[in-house]
Amino acid sequence: MKRLALVTGGVTGIGAAICQALKVAGYSVVANYYGNDAQATDFSHTHDVPVYAWDVSDLDACTKAAAEIVSRHGPIDILVNNAGITRDAMLHKMTAEQWRMVIDVDLGGCFNMCRTVIETMRERQFGRIVNISSVNALSGQAGQTNYAAAKAGVIGFTKALALEGASRGITVNAIAPGYTDTAMVAAVRPDILKSIIDGVPAKRLATPEEIARGVVFLVSDDAGFITGETLSINGGKYLQ
Ligand code: CAA
Fold it and tell me: For residue range 217-226, what is the model confidence (pLDDT) as tens digits?
């Protein structure tokens, strides 16, 4: 029986690449999304990945959606917390709403989804959790106090949950992607983005597929002794 992977934010950008890479690697995959129904339906048909809409910042919604997924597809073996948003602003211009939204989705969503699946993973003595963080959690980034805080929180969360899960066959790891060729990064002002890419030793953006390959490794049996780690995939940014 194929293992079942749930990828949040799974129909666009890095999440879509993760879904496709996990399918190619032989997993059953379901994707969460929130927002564009037409785009999600199109992705679902093209890639044969069932899609489910809910807001990961809402714990009740996570619980209900996971119950439906389990009843239709079986227990969730692999959780990839990829859903994330940005609301960039310098702190002196940041609103409480911009702060709250990013913390609630990027960090709160990680708690909500892990809380939803963890009891069953403990009972079944198996689980793989990969949380998508960011290079900017490690390096900081002007204009992203909210995002850097949330994504750094994800790394601490990952380490703590790894300690809790290790004796139950559950590994919990993070990936810290560098700037990746997605709509989120394309939204950065072109002159700012150019200076960021100029500062990447590899002098280019990551492809979503390069991030997805890290996920495929971390959820594999080969990675069963790796837990609590953060894998940087960033073309050398933050080495300097
Ligand atoms: N370091 C220090 N100061 C900086 C700075 C930097 N990197 N960038 C800008 N500043 C300063 C400017 O010099 C300016 O200073 P003064 O007011 O004294 O002149 C001040 O900050 C305001 O700069 P902006 O004109 O850019 O301000 P803005 O309000 O128009 O824009 C911003 C602010 C939206 C945050 C914009 O700077 C921005 O988009 N920055 C990039 C943020 C970024 O990298 N986001 C990543 C999104 S993708 C992602 O998050 C995925 C991932 O994981 C990597």
Answer: 999 999 999 9
